[in-house]
TrEMBL record:
Catalytic activity, as annotated: L-seryl-[protein] + ATP = O-phospho-L-seryl-[protein] + ADP + H(+); L-threonyl-[protein] + ATP = O-phospho-L-threonyl-[protein] + ADP + H(+)
Molecular function terms, GO-annotated: ATP binding; protein serine/threonine kinase activity
Protein name in UniProt: non-specific serine/threonine protein kinase
Domain Protein kinase: 1-65
Occurrences of domain AGC-kinase C-terminal (ranges): 66-112
InterPro entries: AGC-kinase_C, Kinase-like_dom_sf, Prot_kinase_dom
Alphabetically ordered keywords of this record: ATP-binding, Kinase, Nucleotide-binding, Serine/threonine-protein kinase, Transferase
EC number: 2.7.11.1
């Protein structure tokens, strides 16, 4: 998914399922552009040999995720049930959450 978000296409695209599987097993995706933490993470995630592939612990410690407070993510409350509504009457009694501020707090945007 990270590769697709960065490059706008899948790293392995065959004409059919079998060719796609063969590409996954044999091809190394081209990570064009300057070396960045994101490209490094993608390269490590797409490592062919499982023993050399980045682990979950290493992913959490990777430079790309340096600003993520993993403990805070685990403490995030579950999304409340949001029923369909026809008018503002349905909002009575429901707490409105400022999602942007909450996410910025989780990821500590702008801080090192």
């Amino acid at each position: 998914m990270l590769y697709e978000m960065l490059y706008g296409k899948t790293p392995f695209k065959g004409i059919d399922r079998e060719e796609t599987f063969n590409l996954i097993l044999s091809n190394v995706p081209n990570l064009t552009g300057e070396v960045t933490p994101l490209r490094d993470l993608i390269r490590e995630l797409l490592e062919k040999e499982p023993q050399k592939r980045i682990s979950v612990r290493e992913i959490k410690g990777h430079e790309f995720f340096k600003s993520v407070d993993w403990d805070l993510i685990l403490e995030m409350p579950k999304t409340p049930f949001i029923p369909g509504r026809k008018d503002d009457e349905d909002l009575k009694g429901n707490k409105i959450i400022d999602v942007e501020s909450y996410v910025q707090g989780v990821f500590k945007v702008g801080e090192e």
